[in-house]
Write a structure and sequence with these properties.
138 residues; mainly beta; 5-stranded antiparallel β-sheet; two-stranded antiparallel ribbon; 1 helix
Length: 138
């Protein structure tokens, strides 16, 4: 069992900030053979949108590369990730958060997918390493 997570630094108050913003809905066309993360970041840039949320349902990937939650191998972290898995699969459900890390785009994606071998899996998509197997509009 890992010890409780203790974050360094001063506690920020209030713990949450809410800022009104405009919501924009736009299509994200991903062609077959496109790497998932760059394709989504390019669509956000083309739409002039800095951050958002993408429903990933129906996206087929070959390869689909992902990791799953796992126990941390060291006591300095509460949890970590498994070794990468690689398969062919299609999102049954999933979402990708899109934002910024400094000057660069950043994504974080959790999903539930059906794999080509008939099994199902869940995990954290490795978007820079996963490739669309067929065209889709998200």
């Amino acid at each position: 069992m890992n010890p409780p997570v203790e974050h360094p630094g001063t506690r920020v108050e209030p713990r949450a900030h809410a800022i009104p913003t405009e919501t924009v809905r736009f299509p994200i066309d991903i062609p077959a053979g496109a790497t998932v993360e760059p394709a989504i970041l390019a669509a956000f840039a083309a739409a002039g949108v800095l951050s958002g949320f993408v429903i990933m349902d129906g996206l087929a990937c070959a390869p689909l590369r992902y990791v799953m939650p796992a126990a941390s191998p060291t006591p300095d972290r509460f949890a970590w990730y498994s070794a990468p898995h690689e398969a062919q699969g299609t999102f049954l459900s999933g979402y990708m958060s899109v934002g910024r890390d400094g000057d660069n785009g950043f994504t974080h994606c959790h999903g539930h997918w059906a794999l080509a071998d008939g099994t199902q899996a869940i995990g954290h998509l490795l978007g820079p390493e996963s490739v669309a197997a067929e065209p889709i509009t998200l």
